[in-house]
Design brief:
This protein has two domains: 189 residues, Periplasmic binding protein-like II (D-Maltodextrin-Binding Protein, domain 2, 3-Layer(aba) Sandwich); 158 residues, D-Maltodextrin-Binding Protein, domain 2. Helices cover 33% and strands 19% of the residues. The chain is built from 13 helices and 15 strands. The strands form four sheets. The chain has an eight-stranded mixed beta sheet with strand order 4-3-5-13-6-10-8-9. Strands 7-11-12 form a three-stranded mixed beta sheet. The chain is elongated.
């Protein structure tokens, strides 16, 4: 893993391999500015399609949109990472054409949205990034391993009951690092905004241990805030930046943010008792633990804390949200569905996602999504022929 090749590993969250990272350098994905111009000189009035929502899939959505601008230059798609809560509100208010969310619509939101449908698009992993100042220098030939956490220790950290880096529970999981973990307080980062990443993370904590009693939702009252060692940041980007800039801190982010910025992230002891690293294989194992049987009649599913030996325990689907019957601009509706179909069926789109640490849909799930997209109508007529 790239993050484990940096020379200063336990302080990896402060550096790329060989050079410091400042907040302004935090990588999300390629910018569309590098792509073909959207001006009238190169495109004649591209159709504008607007989306907003979850930051969990923002890196791959940005990359997909950039790639798709070469495939269909008649459409200009943009997606703003404002959080799952913001995305759900925007699609219900009619200010965007589609939303992204890792947080599931509740009964009231389905009622308010009238014809909204969630479509799983990818599976992603949440990881614990960290920035630890070792208590003493490492020997020149010492290969620093990744921090290891188990399910119970992670719950205790976010409960505020394990609050120092040299706590016996952490030491017991990290024998090679026992002499280097500092007698220092853990600053625990969490999201300040309504977040699907938070909903997935807290759902996982609730599955990990009955000691987690704070609930699972897009927003919660964090025990570490009451304990005095918590700090909030907005978005996956904000949590990543806060950990980069806060010595002896940790926080939860979507895997792609750790990969893009070469940040250190912890391995986990999963439900099967195996040490696992977050990657596309661990995600695929979690997806396969549940497969199509996990999905309900609303085409949503939970895949946290799977039983498989290789399964990453903090895994979840991210969703697109569309109006199923209320779209009235049928050209836009067709272009939108063509783009979504490309994201889940094109081999290059799948390869881009895997490179960033996401897992694509299993065949049976993808077929269900395509079938549901086939039910979308505009002015009473099917959009996909």
């Amino acid at each position: 893993m790239t993050a484990r090749l940096c020379a200063s590993l336990l302080v990896l969250a402060l550096t790329r391999c060989g050079s410091p990272i400042s907040p302004g350098q935090l990588v999300v994905a390629q910018t569309q500015a590098a792509g073909p111009s959207l001006t009238a000189t190169s495109r004649t009035g591209p159709l504008q399609i607007h989306g907003a929502g979850a930051t969990f899939p923002l890196p791959i959505y940005t990359e997909w949109i950039y790639a798709y601008s070469f495939i269909d230059p008649t459409v200009a798609i943009d997606y703003q990472g404002i959080g799952s809560g913001g995305g759900k509100k925007a699609i219900m208010d009619g200010t965007v054409d589609f939303a992204g969310s890792d947080s599931l619509l509740n009964a009231e939101e389905y009622e308010a949205g009238k014809d909204l449908q969630m479509y799983p698009i990818l599976a992603g992993a949440v990881v614990i990034i960290y920035n630890i100042q070792p208590s003493k220098e490492y020997p020149p030939d010492f290969k620093v391993p990744a921090l290891v956490l188990d399910r119970e220790a992670l719950v205790d950290i976010y409960n505020g009951t394990v609050n120092r880096w040299n706590d016996p529970k952490i030491i017991a999981l990290n024998d090679p690092l026992a002499d280097y973990l500092p007698d220092a307080a853990i600053t625990v980062l969490y999201r300040s905004d309504a977040s699907g990443t938070t909903e997935l993370f807290t759902e996982s904590l609730a599955s990990f241990s009955p000691a987690w009693t704070a609930g699972s939702a897009a927003e919660i009252a964090w025990p570490v805030e009451s304990a005095g060692n918590g700090a909030a940041a907005r978005g996956n980007q904000g949590v990543a930046e806060a950990v980069i800039n806060t010595v002896n801190s940790l926080g939860y982010v979507e895997l792609s943010y750790a990969i893009s910025n070469t940040l250190a992230f912890a391995d986990m002891i999963n439900k099967a008792g195996k040490e696992v690293t977050a990657n596309a294989d661990g995600l695929a194992a979690a997806v396969n633990d549940f497969d199509i049987a996990a999905f309900n009649d609303k085409l949503t599913a939970s895949i946290v804390d799977g039983d498989g030996e290789g399964s990453w325990p903090i895994s979840g689907y991210t969703y697109l949200i569309l109006h199923q019957t209320n779209m009235t601009d049928c050209i836009k509706a067709r272009k939108l569905l063509e783009y979504f179909r490309w994201t889940i069926t094109d081999a290059s789109a799948s390869a881009r996602a895997a490179k960033r640490g996401y897992a694509v849909l299993p065949d049976a799930v993808r077929n269900q999504v395509l079938a549901k997209l086939g039910e979308v109508t505009c002015n009473g007529q099917p959009v996909m022929k």
